[in-house]
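Record type: ASSEMBLY
Status: queued
Input:
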Amino acid sequence: MNDLNNQNKVILDAKNISIVFGGLKAVTDFNITIRENELVGLIGPNGAGKTTVFNMLTGVYKPTSGKITLCGEDVTYLSPHVRVEKGISRTFQNIRLFKKLSVSDNIKAAFNTRKNYTVFDAIFRTKRFWKEEKLIDEKTNEILDILGLSDCSEEIANNLPYGKQRKLEIARALATSPKLILLDEPAAGMNPIETSELMETIKTVREKFNTTILLIEHDMKLVMGICEKITVLSFGEIIASGSPEEIKNNPDVISAYLGE
Amino acid sequence: MQRSNNSLVPLYSRKKPYLINLISCVLLLVLVWITLGADFSKSIYVNILGLNFRQMEGLAFIICYTIILAVSLNLSTGCLGELVLGHAGFMAIGGYAGAIFLKAVSSSITSEAINNLYTVIALLIGFVFAGIAGFLVGIPALRLRGDYLAIITLGFGQIIVKLLELFKFTGGASGLTKIPKNQNIVLYVLIVIIVVLIIFTLMRSRFGRMILAIRDDNIASEACGIPVTKCKIATFALSAALAGIGGVLFAQYNGVLLPSKFSFNYSIDLLVIVVLGGLGSFTGSIVSATILTIIPESLRFFSDYRIIVYSVILIIIMITRPSGLLGRYEFSMTRFIKMLPKRVKNISKKIAMFIKGIFKRKSSNNSKNGGNEYE
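Status: finished
Output:
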């Protein structure tokens, strides 16, 4: 908001989105503007409504009021899988992998957005089928390589260690070739070494795939370390937003986290 | 550590296996033709597992349509992960639709070729009607999550039986009779191969990955851009449609359709076959459909106690192999051929060791020479 010299294209723009569950105002007038290649953090105490915001952005919940635009296109009422095709991809707070599939199949499953061949191509194994399968294979290997998962590409996802499962979830989100990735607490349950590894992963992902990232995180070291812009949410309302330094010194934020 | 067995080789480089599978399918057809189809084989007297030739021939037909039903049920229960308790209902719809068509054209059946042609048309009719039924049942049920499909299909199966007993064009409770028979075993096996092929190729493509992803995690697959509801309904309709094909084959083999055959019990029988074979394993379904069709027949000499023996066998299998006979394993001809030399080597080594042992016991002098001879 304050960096006017940043003239990058606006990827995601949420205007005054609110959601009410029964009588409970979960999120009120949430605003966020994310520009191309930005890494934005969304923080706040537990129960502030961060994941609810994510669910609204990805289409799991439909906002009661407000408008969400992706690259100028209104996506407020589109269903989740259509939004993925438009370019919003996400990971989950509690890991949701396809547990019984292999690592590479997990990623291949996310390539469906390409809609590259039909049922008849699959049954009759036409030329197009082989071509597209080869392409999917190559792209899968590329993603696995970049995220350092290629040595366990045939393992069942459920058998992976925790850190790698997180990585795989990010890899799967990347397979849909998103414009914007939403990471929901990627460092939850990780030890400091794994967290710093994750920071590196996020940085590489950003460089190699040219994506924009919005992440929810409790680990302040991670957030302050990599985010360029931070929005703070408390009781469903934005209480501050700006650069990490501004947020660190903001009295409202300090009181929300530590109490009066 | 456990590894998945279906993607050891990248998919795009696996063209050779298709040739191998084609050859083995042709071999299977020839084998079936020699043993059951050709006229000269009928003069041979065989008696295996207490079954004479006529019974075995009959069993082959039953096995064929049971395999189709089991494999199609496995598609929706094993792969999509939705419990279906009314698969016999879809089979009934397909069977009756095909049978009504066959009865209408029965007067024009003059030769075997025409009969086979009508069979194929009846199969398509059964496929379409059962598919439409599956689609209509799936729309309300699959939009929900959880066990709703199980309950709806359970009700659907019962309703179909009652409706078949109610209407005149289905013959009421006494059923449809005088359906033109077609007992060409080669055709049956060919249809089984086609059905299994369709499901296999579909499961080894992006559609198969979609279906498996939905089974593993509904929400995550939606977040990966998979249209969950649409995909579920399509899979379920396909599964129902293939059950319709099984129904037509059933009608053509028996020549009679009785509503009582398609009761809840039969649906459960099919489910038992699928669970026993391993949820998600099509080879497992084929194997267990074959075994569970043969066991009750070969136990006939136990007369009334055979149901008890059958149940005991089922319980024993489920205790020793809780994830089904094959689990999620699929048999692969290519892998089998690759493993064959190794297996033969291992077995011959074991035999050699065994003989060595015998020689050793007899005389210690001969042991070296004797052992080397057999290696």
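Annotation: The longest strand of chain A covers residues 10-21.
Annotation: Confidence is low (pLDDT under 50) at residues 1-5 of chain A.
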